[in-house]
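Thread: 2P0 complex, take 2
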Amino acid sequence: MSDKVYYFETLKFLDKRKKLKEAISIAHPNFALVKYWGKNDTEENQPAMSSVSVTIDSLISKTKISENSSSKDLKWSLNGREQNDLNRILPTINYLSNLYGTKDNIQIESNNNFPTAAGLASSASGIASLVTAFERYYDLQLPIEEKIKACMLGSGSAPRSLLGGFVLMDHLDHFRCSQILERTEWQLNILVCITSAQEKIISSRQAMEISRKTSPHYGKWLDINSSHIRQAIRFIKAKDLLGLGRVSEENCDFMHKVINSSVPSITYKNRMTEMCIETVKQLRERGHQLFYTVDAGPQVKIICEQKTSKIIKDAILRQTIVPQIIDASIGMPPQSL
Ligand code: 2P0
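Output below.
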């Protein structure tokens, strides 16, 4: 019997098993230190480059799957509101349902304990918790390759949230995700400066397509990826915070240059974002070890040593008008409750 036939026979066997009444899983978002911005393939939602990220503990997406006894439809609520547009989750659910060989009427309830669609990677943690809850609900043990594929169909950065600590997603090796360091091996703090909790002005998905098609810097952005990946891995393994900060800030600044130079021009940062970045640079000049990163939204994530985290947080609150800073450390992989 070929591996594939055996696999589907196994799934048929699993189909006869009793499903759980409900499954609840959580996953954390991840922040990219070497970023993904641009796709190879929009059908399968495949990134055009590798990326390195860190998983964040205090930010949590929780997904509950239960039987939808009231109708035959798939129902999805996000932060308590029923969603009419299921496009964000359907590719993932359809992929897993086809693999599992059934189409159940299920109800999915997703909740985030942090602002949604505001540049805090809620789609990555949301999709990773959905895949984990699906696996639990049907009592499956999905191979990691299938989980990566299912996650990626929902969000190109979601596979990285399947692991804790520092994570590499390698686009030259079927998007294999591997842990560079465990969270306990290098204990850092992440200060998440919320400059605005509003939803982003344009989705990452739309914006990265515009960048790919129009930015004059997109070619160079692709070219620098392998060098940034190599450097980031080396600095993470050496636990060199300033080295990692240099390459990570260069990568972040380059991504925003690509975004800004797209036609039409897109800007995710606001005035407070710039103020936070300036303060990070001043604190570094004063001898503190820290660096910033900014994604597709105006929030500033500051990565620093645990021992100076409070001094840095106080300085940011004093020198800027940031309304909220969330304290975080490095997070774990998804868990079923
Ligand atoms: C990243 N971002 O590597 C980059 C940096 C935002 C800036 O991946 O289209 O929600 O669903 O694959 O994963 C955000 O984009 O976009 C993202 P899709 P996704 O984290």
